[in-house]
Design brief:
- The complex is a heterodimer of chains A (118) and B (111).
- With 118 residues, chain A is mainly β.
- Chain A is built from no helices and eleven strands.
- Helix content of chain A is 0%, strand content 52%.
- In chain A, strands 2, 4, 5, 6, 9, 10 and 11 form a seven-stranded mixed beta sheet that branches. A four-stranded antiparallel beta sheet of chain A has the order 1-3-8-7, with no helix packed on it.
- In chain A, a hairpin with a 2-residue loop joins strand 7 and strand 8.
- In chain B, 0% of the residues lie in helices and 59% in strands.
- Classes of the chains: A mainly beta (118), B mainly beta (111).
- Chains A and B meet through strand 5, strand 9 and strand 10 of A and strand 4 and strand 5 of B.
Chain lengths: 118, 111
């Protein structure tokens, strides 16, 4: 149980275009989802916290207008990288807090999206 | 500010050669410490949660222990399929329920 499905797993796009990444909770409702970015040999860097029905909370240094987050339903959060540039190339991972288990380490992660901007 | 430092950054072992990974942490108050396994190109997979000093958890060849300042992930007689990056994360008692991750230890087990 508590599965998060993330798509696409890989995407290559041209500079200046936008890319949307989807994160779905398959068997539970996720009022809160998290978006991380991970560089090679680096830690997971939290970009933003996505809250269903309200605006996302962005971490310091993350451009809100560049990384658009929408959490329109209890099972879907999307991250749109707008006007992508090569420096946006990275591994993006979503995560969801499993209801009622946050105190017990109840976070489940998507399989990640490898974004390459050429 | 919560901090998590993992060592070593990379570890190469021969199959059957036991070893330990270290996770040192600094938090205002520990709510929980987590270990995850991450395979290349995949999201982290939950392994253990530890809550208090002295606690231990085991799963197959892995055993996690916790003190007031650090946690160890012991790997006994590892196999090539144990090769992965192991991430440590802490959840502090203050603030939001968002864990802070270390950079991970990349483990390669050679047959």
């Amino acid at each position: 149980g508590a599965v998060v499905s993330q798509h696409p797993s890989r995407v290559i796009c041209k500079s200046g275009t936008s890319v949307k990444i989807e994160c779905r909770s398959l068997d539970f409702q996720a009022t809160t989802m998290f978006w991380y970015r991970q560089f090679p040999k680096q830690s997971l860097m939290l970009m933003a916290t996505s809250n269903e029905g309200s605006k996302a909370t962005y971490e310091q240094g993350v451009e809100k207008d560049k990384f658009l987050i929408n959490h329109a339903s209890l099972t879907l959060s999307t991250l749109t990288v707008t006007s992508a540039h090569p420096e946006d190339s990275s591994f993006y991972i979503c995560s969801a807090r499993i209801p009622g288990t946050a105190k017990l380490g109840g976070y489940t992660f998507g399989s990640g999206t490898r974004l390459t901007v050429v | 500010e919560d901090q998590v430092t993992q060592s070593p950054e990379a570890l190469r072992l021969q199959e059957g050669e036991s070893s330990s990974l270290n996770c040192s942490y600094t938090v205002s108050g520990l709510r929980g410490l987590f270990w995850y396994r991450q395979d290349p190109g995949k999201g982290p997979e939950f392994l253990f949660t530890l809550y208090s000093a002295g606690e231990e958890k085991e799963k197959e060849r892995l055993k996690a222990t916790l003190t007031k300042k650090e946690s160890f992930l012991h790997i006994t007689a590892p196999k090539p399929e144990d090769s992965a990056t192991y991430l440590c994360a802490v959840l502090s008692s203050g603030g939001s329920y968002i864990p802070t991750f270390g950079r991970g230890t990349s483990l390669i087990v050679h047959p």
